[in-house]
Amino acid sequence: MKYILFLIVASLITFAQAVTLTDTNGRSLICKIISTTETEVSVKKLDGTVFHIPLSRLSESSRKAVVDFVKDRDAAAEEAEEAAEKAKPKGLVVTSLAIKRIEASSIGGTFRYFFAVRNYEATDWAGTIKIRLVEQNGIKLSAREFVVSVSANGGANSYFEASVGPPSVHGEYGVVAFEVEASDATGKSVPIPGGAISSKYSDIAE
Questions:
Q1: What is the CATH number of the domain that holds 75?
Q2: Is the predicted pLDDT of residue 169 greater than 60, yes or no?
Q3: Do residues 59 and 96 share a domain?
Q4: Residue 187 needs a FRET pair 20 to 30 A away by CA distance; which of 28, 45, 47, 135 works?
Q5: Is the domain of 16 the same as that of 113?
């Protein structure tokens, strides 16, 4: 039963994507346009058969349908390209990589926080980055400062140590996020978003 329903849905999708092309003799064909060249159009019939039709054999309205198909296809490709470009990271990005407890004590110990700085610009960047850890209860810890130099589309890793670990160790006082302040070599402030602390945690023996 499920298989039959799948076939029905697949058929409905196929019909929704289909067009009707008519040749110069008035014969019509329900099909899906696959691709085009300057002289012909490749189509797939509803039974899955693929073949090629010279544009010169199509009626004027069908040739227009092919032209519209090309316009829609190119527009969709352009939109997808623009969306992909917008989705690309830009500027400087700081990411939390991992936490490792390097020393244990009765109150938790010492925790090493690892971060990555990535430069997505086409030019090198050098400056100062401050990272401030934020506890689950909203308390912000003292900022740690780094002098960073990263090449265009390059990156660098760094770390610092703190006496507060993740919530699994310190509960509501555990670190869950970080904030970033940055300035370039001229002292100009550079906006960099903070983020969540990585869930990748390891203890001394690991």
A1: 2.30.30.700
A2: yes
A3: no
A4: 135
A5: no
CB atoms under 10 Å from CB of 189, counted, come to 10
For residue range 65-102, list pLDDT tens digits in order: 899 888 988 899 999 988 888 888 788 999 999 999 99
Q: Are residues 7 and 73 in the same domain?
A: yes
Angstrom distance (rounded) from CA 53 to CA 159: 63
Residue-level length of the chain: 206
DSSP per position, 118-179: EE-SSS-EEEEEEEEEEETTSPBPPPEEEEEEE-TT-EEEEEEEES---HHHHGGGSEEEEE
Q: Are 33 and 43 in contact, with CB atoms under 8 Å apart? A: yes
Q: Is the pLDDT of residue 105 over 80?
A: yes
Is 98 found in the same domain as 82?
Answer: no
Give CA–CA dist 167/174, Å, rounded: 4
Number of domains within the chain: 2
Among 5-14, 110-119, 179-188, which is the least confidently predicted range? Answer: 5-14
Instruction: Choose one of 50, 71, 86: the last residue of a domain.
Output: 86
Res 8: pLDDT: 38
Q: Domain span at residue 136?
A: 92-202
